[in-house]
Amino acid sequence: AQKVTQAQTEISVVEKEDVTLDCVYETRDTTYYLFWYKQPPSGELVFLIRRNSFDEQNEISGRYSWNFQKSTSSFNFTITASQVVDSAVYFCALIVYNQGGKLIFGQGTELSVKP
Amino acid sequence: DSGVTQTPKHLITATGQRVTLRCSPRSGDLSVYWYQQSLDQGLQFLIQYYNGEERAKGNILERFSAQQFPDLHSELNLSSLELGDSALYFCASSADRGPYNEQFFGPGTRLTVL
User: In this model, does residue A93 exceed pLDDT 90?
Assistant: First the structure.
């Protein structure tokens, strides 16, 4: 069975601090995709990144960076110099290759960035 | 704005009733997905349709059903509603039927069952 675990339920930081959101996944499949989505207070889900299981290169997009490590089954997300607008719930998710588009979500991490 | 539209935005109804949630995918997207978000269950995949055909199924209750029409819009029907069905229901769409493309989510329909 596949599973995504986000052990951090809530994180609170002060603006400009760096913060890392942890994500650990479980699957026996060798082909899979990992995702991060952001859910701001307005409620919609916003796509941030997709990674396939064969690409372990880290990725950076502005203040956002992602660290994918197959050896530890982790796909962590770091926000550098956090801002108040980063306050949201962040979800890590997994799709296994042969199960269509079924996204398996973690429980989410609520990030609060205080001024 | 993701380009995925959902109506209605809010729905309040009573136990035992039936409701229909509607979703229009992004232009050109052939896959439509339905997800339920509740406090106790989190975000759960319900069902996927690809170009009118059911493609994948999650833990969707028998009281729930969905379909995708020839114009690619989709409807999720919830019947014999219970208090526990109160949740935020998201529709998402993607270009393809597999994991190759990211899913873009609509704003959701908040269902309250009283």
Answer: yes
Nearest to B26 by CA among B108, B110, B109, B106: B106
Compute CA distances A61 → A22, A49, A76, A114, B83, whole Å.
Answer: 18, 9, 14, 22, 42
pLDDT band at B97 (very low <50, low <70, confident <90, very high): low
Single out the residue of B82, B110, B66 nearest to residue B17, CA to CA.
B82
Mean pLDDT, range A32-42, rounded to an integer: 94
Residue labelled with tokens 């995709």: A33
In sequence order, the β-bridge partners of residue B94 are B31
Return the closest-CA partner of residue B23 out of B46, B57, B56.
B46
Q: Scanning every residue of chain B, which has its alpha carbon at the shortest distance from the alpha carbon of A3?
A: B44
- β-strands A10-14, A46-52 pairing: unpaired
Total beta-carbon pairs less than 8 A apart between chain A and chain B: 64
Q: For chain B, what's the residue count?
A: 114
For the record, the structure tokens of B9 come out as 């935005």
Amino acid at B23: C
The beta-carbon neighbor of B42 closest among A43, A45, A108 is: A108
> pLDDT-derived band of residue B98, with 50, 70 and 90 as boundaries?
low
Residue with tokens 């997800």: B35
Closest CA of chain A from B25, distance in Å: 15
| CB contact at 8 A, B105 and A45 | yes
Give chain B's count of helices (H) and strands (E): 0, 11
